[in-house]
């Protein structure tokens, strides 16, 4: 079976990761982290979120962060914008890509943002239109594609439906996320194929969580399906809000180790990511959540 | 691609796991752990090692442990026996299966046991013959099949050569182990196929380490090759002696979560293993090394 020869890794640690960490991280440290990641060679870094600091205090420094980072030519810096106020701030900060989101689970949508999936997509319509009007890239993040903490199972039809809605809003990329990490490898093909029927495979990304240790197996299964964009988080930043003490985002170092072993080009320097992981883990005061990161750091120190 | 419908999980935590933990565990706690694992439904538990306590102090209580456990009908209790003295002790303790071992790396063999691969196999010959004469099962463990901490790469020819030697000693099962956890999924097929050419696939097992987070992806790739026996360690017991702070054996809970998701029968009760993992982790005074174990334990407590 031929796997892709090249993939794109989207580094989400500075936003999706740090947003879900309990320890507050200063703008200065975030800026240093993003610069380290840019230098490591990522072509896409999720850097900020322009949401109300009342709801997400970890992202209150987004304006300062976007103003402080060095923009590496060729790297796309992404930010979440849940509404027009957020979009205006994101435009002012000159982000390259606007991220909007929707769940594949009605129960999750209701619990998380107090409205139906269809309503949530409609609320994003002006954001999406303004983003495109300003020449920004637009990414749609589809959460709970493999299961929901409230309703349990999520059908492939529900995934396809939200992919279609995000596509119709003009998304350049759509991210299929296993928000609670419940997927096993056999579920990857049917879910991804339901998305591929609605959207070009080369602009679909996979975002796995390692809550049950399944992320790398799921990524391998996604490579077999032909997916070429993967989201991951340096040092496995970000926990799982649905199981205390459990792991969240798959760690970038583990993903890069896999790709390197498979001979798949990423353009990212694994050792530089290990260093970035050590840097942010020391500021969080805890060991890295990346197994490859911990092993490679131990080797560097020995 | 059709995966196997049923696999055997060999639980190695009480021996391979605890032997590589720094914290000393009493015979009483080991006995309780093995009994919990038997009750969970494992048909094979690696329980003891009859080696000199001078070299492996963690295994000094092996006689006491084998005498103290409840023997579950249908469960095979295995023990390492590196020489005739060890074999006599293992026979006296009435173990069901004798484990002998050899490396696929000359450098590792020399560093680890001070002799060549060929010499090490010859030293096991009387042990193997006596084990068979006494009607015991015989398992050969083949370490460094995917890479060596000293020589680096290990060829598939070297793996095939040691498989052949272990087969000729009369091994009923042969275990292909990634002792330092360096394998990625693309290496699984060539290594396993080199073993399959020498030995029946249904009696070959795969033993992966999660040092770089790759174990589950490698197990998934092994299922695709058709391997039906997997070694794993409750709570991921056992570290990696080659990288301080790094992970060792793949965690049984993560493997069971994968098999359950894939609809592959194991006969083992995952929740009971999560409980066994909590029990031994509390005695080690550290969090579980199993991601599924940690997540499921958090759910049980919430």
TL;DR?
The first copy, chain A, is of the alpha/beta class and 302 residues long.
Structure characterization notes:
Chain A is α/β, with parallel strands linked by helices and 302 residues long. Chain A has twelve helices and eight strands. Chain A has an eight-stranded parallel beta barrel with strand order 1-2-3-4-5-6-7-8, surrounded by nine helices. In chain A, helix 8 links the parallel strand 6 and strand 7 (204-207). In chain A, helix 2 (27-40) packs antiparallel against helix 11 and helix 8 (185-196) crosses helix 9 (215-225). The model of chain A has no long low-confidence stretch (mean pLDDT 95). At the A-B interface, helix 8, helix 9, helix 10 and helix 12 of A face helix 8, helix 9, helix 10 and helix 12 of B.
Average of per-residue pLDDT values of chain A: 95
Q: Beta-sheet strand percentage of chain A? A: 5-15%
Structural class of chain A: alpha/beta
* Radius of gyration based on Cα positions of chain A: 18 Å
Assembly annotation? homodimer
Number of helices of chain A: 12
What ranges of chain A have pLDDT less than 50 throughout 5 or more consecutive residues? none
Give the beta-strand count of chain A.
8
Helix content of chain A: 40-55%
Q: Greatest interface and its residue counts?
A: A-B, 43 and 43 residues
User: Distance between the terminal alpha carbons of chain A, to the nearest Å?
Assistant: 38 Å
**Which descriptor suits the 3D outline of chain A?**
globular
Strand count, sense and barrel status of the largest sheet of chain A are: 8 strands, parallel, barrel
* SSE string of chain A, helices as H and strands as E: EHHEHEHEHHEHEHEHEHHH
Largest sheet, spatial ordering of strands of chain A? 1-2-3-4-5-6-7-8
């Amino acid at each position: 079976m031929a796997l892709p020869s090249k993939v794109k890794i989207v580094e989400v640690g500075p936003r999706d990761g740090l947003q879900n960490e309990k320890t507050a991280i200063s703008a200065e440290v975030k800026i240093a982290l993003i610069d380290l990641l840019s230098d490591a060679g990522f072509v896409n870094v999720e850097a900020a979120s322009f949401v109300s600091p009342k709801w997400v205090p970890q992202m209150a420094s987004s304006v300062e962060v976007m103003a402080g980072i060095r923009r590496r030519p060729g790297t796309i810096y992404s930010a979440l914008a849940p509404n027009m106020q957020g979009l205006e701030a994101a435009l002012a900060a000159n982000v390259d890509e606007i991220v909007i989101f929707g769940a594949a689970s009605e129960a999750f949508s209701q619990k998380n943002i107090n409205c139906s999936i269809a309503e949530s997509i409609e609320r994003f319509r002006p954001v999406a239109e303004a983003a495109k009007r300003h020449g920004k890239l637009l990414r749609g993040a589809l959460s709970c594609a493999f299961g929901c903490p409230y309703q349990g199972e999520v059908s492939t039809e529900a995934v396809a439906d939200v992919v279609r809605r995000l596509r119709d809003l003009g998304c350049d990329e759509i991210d299929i996320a296993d928000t609670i990490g419940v997927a096993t490898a056999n579920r990857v093909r049917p879910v991804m194929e339901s998305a591929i029927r609605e959207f070009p495979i080369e602009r679909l990304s996979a975002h796995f969580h390692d809550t049950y240790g399944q992320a790398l197996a799921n990524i391998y299964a996604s490579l077999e399906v032909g997916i070429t964009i993967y989201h991951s988080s340096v040092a496995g930043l970000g926990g799982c809000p649905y199981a205390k003490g459990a792991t969240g985002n798959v760690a970038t170092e583990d993903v890069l180790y896999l790709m390197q072993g498979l001979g798949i080009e990423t353009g990212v320097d694994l050792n530089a990511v290990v260093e970035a992981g050590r840097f942010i883990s020391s500021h969080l005061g805890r060991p890295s959540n990346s197994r490859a990161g911990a092993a490679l750091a131990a080797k560097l120190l020995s």
